[in-house]
Specification:
275 residues, alpha/beta, Rossmann fold, five-stranded parallel β-sheet
């Protein structure tokens, strides 16, 4: 019997690997990404990634088409084969069957690349949070953590620090564009409000599983701790300590007093943005 099992395993290992189920997560920073990933990763069938580099790999490879070397010998088919295989190759050794890849896939440019080089239909989960709450969360984080990246520059006011965070080339701006463009493809996206996720997490995660067309997994929502994703944990020394720290106790909405401290000019410039 053991010999039969061994032969079966050897045979199965030689078969082509089934592609992972891939979904995508679009979300502003400070909008419950770590909470989402921590909860979903309780299910051993699912891996919800941190900020992913897969899109950056595709974009960098695509830019090779502009180089003299490529244009001297423009083998589009071969390079496109590499571009088409990025997602499957990147995640092929991950043990989970379902990958939720986090990144701004719904920006206009990224979406065009996805349509060309992701050879199947795809779905996005979009986390929404009031932008002023996002900025208040940033303020609390960089105020309580001196090594946070906004404190590493010669910026001596909250207005300047938040202005840098809202830079048109930064993560917030990219995700805002992705969220805005996602509304053009409502059938592809499932929207989750941060306030709903922390007020009634079980109900919201049941809706997420319905969207994924997966049976609900009985998650727990108390005393969560950040988990390793595929054996890798966050290295917050890069951006500043406690960037991905979760609150102790049950998942709940917590009042942030920094909402009252957002500079007036920041409110005037960005307060009109609503989801």
């Amino acid at each position: 019997m053991d010999r039969l099992k061994q032969l079966k395993n050897q045979y199965c290992q030689g078969l082509p690997q089934k592609d992972k189920q891939l979904f995508f997560l679009v979300a502003l920073p400070r909008s419950g990404n770590t909470l989402f990933s921590t909860v979903m990763s309780q299910n051993s069938k699912i891996a919800s990634t941190a900020n992913s580099i897969t899109l950056e790999i595709i974009k960098d490879l695509y830019l090779l088409k502009e180089t003299d070397v490529f244009q001297n010998f423009p083998d589009h088919n071969s390079l496109d084969n590499v571009l088409d295989s990025v997602f499957n190759n990147y995640y092929k050794d991950w043990p989970q069957e379902i990958i939720i890849d986090r990144g701004p896939v719904m920006t206009v440019g990224n979406f065009a690349l996805m349509q060309k080089h992701f050879k199947r239909s795809f779905k996005c989960i979009v986390l929404l949070r009031d932008l002023m709450d996002v900025l208040a969360s940033y303020m609390q984080w960089y105020t309580e953590n001196p090594d946070a990246f906004p404190n590493r520059y010669n910026l001596n006011t909250d207005e300047k620090k938040l202005g840098m965070i809202m830079n048109k080339d930064g993560a917030v701006a990219k995700e805002l564009e992705a969220i805005k463009n996602s509304y053009n493809y409502p059938g592809m996206c499932h929207y989750v409000k941060y306030e709903d996720m922390v007020t009634d997490p079980e109900q919201e995660f049941k809706k997420i599983y319905t969207f994924l067309d997966e049976p609900y997994y009985p998650h727990y929502f108390d005393n969560l701790q950040s988990v390793k994703v595929n054996g890798i944990e966050y290295n917050d020394k890069v951006v500043g300590n406690n960037m991905h720290k979760l609150f102790s106790g049950p998942v709940r909405k917590i009042y942030n007093p920094y909402i009252e401290k957002i500079p007036q000019r920041i409110k005037e410039k960005y307060g009109h943005i609503r989801f």
